[in-house]
What we know:
Layout: H1 4-14, H2 25-32, E1 35-36, H3 42-48, H4 56-64, E2 68-72, E3 78-82, H5 83-89, H6 94-103, H7 108-111, H8 117-126, E4 131-132, H9 133-143, H10 149-160, E5 162-164, E6 178-181, H11 182-186
Antiparallel strand pairs: 1-3, 2-3, 2-5, 4-6, 5-6
Amino acid sequence: MLTDRALGRATLARQLLLERATLDPVDAVDRLVGLQAQNPLDPYSALWSRLVGFDPTTLAAAVVGRRVVRIVVMRGTIHLVTAADCLRIRPLVQPVLDAEMVRHSQYKGTLTGLELEPVLAFGRPFLAEPRSVRALRAALAEAFPDLDPGALALACRNRLGLVQVPPRGVWGKAGEVTLCTAESWLGVMR
């Protein structure tokens, strides 16, 4: 039987928070099953505190090289996860993301009961290439002039599995939110 203290220490060790580890950043992200990345640079400080000799350019190279991605997953927030975990975990959180659409304070009126398949059929090929949120909203406004483009963009975000692509999330770089379907970004055919 584990004591509360032993369980707490085991949890901290599992999260690499008792002592710094000698892991590659991608291996650390894999072991941790993702890092909170709502703020694009938070994973860098999270790994700096966990890894011996952490060099932020190694994580930046993994982001650019598509070995890790920033995507809405756990708790319906953006996390940095490995490419493999992105494809495995993202479908598991679909019920959470569906619930978010029907309770969203600004967009639930538009999205509740709306037939989303035409919107997703439009968004899927459009977002097979990286697009800014501004470009997505403009395209949705043109394609569906009677509907709120912000609500439709949220539907695409929550149903299509969109990654935020570089340069956002790359150490030393900045950029607006640019989205692409995970399958397209990672070169996966479904």
